[in-house]
Amino acid sequence: MILDCAIIGGGPAGLTAGLYATRGGLNNVVMFEKGMPGGQITNSSEIENYPGVTGEITGMELMNPWPEQCQKFGLKHEMVNVTRLTKTGDIFTVHKEDGTTTDAYSVIIGTGSSPRRVGFSGEDELFGKGVSTCATCDGFFYKGKEVAVIGGGDTALEEALYLAKICSKVYLVHRRDTFRSAPNTIQRVKKTENIELVLNSSPDEVYGDAMGVVGLKVKNKDGEIRDIVVPGVFTFVGNDVNNETLLQEDGTFLCYMNEQGQVIVDISMKTSVAGLFATGDMRIAAPKQVVSAAGDGAVAALQAISFVDELLND
Ligand code: FAD
Ligand code: NAP
After folding, report:
1. For residues 243 and 83, what is the distance between their CA atoms, to the nearest angstrom?
2. Residue 125 lies in a domain
3. Which of 89, 106, 81 is nearest to 24 (CA)?
4. Cβ of 119 below 6 Å from ligand 2
């Protein structure tokens, strides 16, 4: 059997694509997700910017009902790691880690991105409990409090400026004494009174208690340790797009990507390959939010419905 649509990734983008594709009339739709559906937001202890959800809610609680809603309209879920996606003629083939393959007329991919970890002690244990990679998401929790930001690129400096408007003080910890950010951004950071630059310093350890992060120890180039007592630590040391699935045997990608490995799409989430749509955090210019990933999934599914209809009925 050839699927009408294969969905790779079961985060907000993939699940919304599944909802719209099945409810919109596609019959055989399978979502391939390597873990529990829900995506990276399930790591967050609180989300308060998903429209209409006003109570205190964890990422897990937000995502819990999504798979059931999709299944009601016929979405099937296969828990498997997709290793590669290929296309021959009009047919896509989903290659899976268990050695099996599935064919499909259209594919919506939403495998997300993974913020790089810095690699200091306590980072993994306190991730989502004070250690964060998203200032838009978590900054508000530290309104009027002090926080630390790790990194010296455009993202770290821009997010430090964003946090400086919400928090009483931002310690910007960078391992060198020069930044790789745009000169104008560096100037703005230097002019911002409540940003303290902690240069030539790398995070050594984040420590906490049952409530979450209590502080961050940083080590400078002379080996001296400084204890920065903050309830929030934001790390911005680069991002890796989860694009391995699109890598072909000859080392090229199935569709066009930009230099950062993000999938190039148009406003309809169409990639350079007919019938392949890319959504959420893995696409170019992604706002990296649940609501926008979900929106991408809906757009892509509506496009996939038209694509399959034209392919099979023309
Ligand atoms: P993801 O959520 O990353 O989902 C991708 C899915 O694909 C994953 O489930 C993964 O297991 C699966 N997958 C990957 N590769 C494969 C493969 N090869 N085979 C099968 N399955 C695969 N956003 C907000 O709007 N508000 C917030 O408050 C907020 N807080 C956040 C807090 C934290 C700690 C983090 C990490 C992120 C936060 N975000 C927040 C960002 C938000 O989580 C992402 O923008 C959103 O989840 C992106 O959705 P996605 O579907 O594109 O990708
Ligand atoms: P980035 O440019 O790769 O910067 C990562 C920063 O993290 C660097 O300062 C790096 O230090 C530091 N770092 C990396 N690993 C570390 C570690 N283990 N410990 C401590 N520090 C570590 O990443 P980015 O800031 O996310 O930007 C990614 C791309 O998007 C860039 O091309 C950037 O220009 C672009 N971007 C553009 C804009 C904009 O145009 N407005 C906004 C955001 C991002 P070193 O400097 O010492 O290497």
Report:
1. 10
2. no
3. 106
4. yes
The verdict on the CB of residue 46 being under 6 Å from ligand 2 is no
Work out which ligand 1 atom sits closest to the CA atom of 128. Answer: 34
Identify the residue whose C-alpha is closest to ligand 1 atom 15: 111
pLDDT of 56 strictly over 90: no
Domain that holds residue 203: 131-235
- Whose Cα sits closest to atom 17 in ligand 2? 118
The C-alpha angle 116, 119, 125, rounded to 5 degrees, equals 95
Asked if 149 and 166 count as a contact pair (C-beta separation under 8 A), the reply is no
Tens of pLDDT, residue by residue over 189-221, are 999 999 999 999 999 999 999 899 999 999 999
Given 138, 167, 255, 281, the catalytic residue: 138
Pair type for strands 146-150 and 169-173: parallel
In this structure, are 160 and 205 located in the same domain? yes
Output Rg (C-alpha) for the chain, integer angstroms.
21
Active site residue 255: no
**Atom nearest to 237 CA in ligand 2:** 7
Query: Of residues 4, 5, 70, 137, which has the active-site annotation?
Result: 137
What pTM was computed for the model? 0.85
Tell me: do 26 and 60 sit in the same domain.
yes
Is the same domain home to 253 and 111? yes
Over residues 15-36, the pLDDT tens digits come to 999 999 999 999 999 999 999 9
Is residue 124 assigned to a domain? no
Q: Is 118 in the pocket of ligand 2 (CB under 6 A)?
A: yes
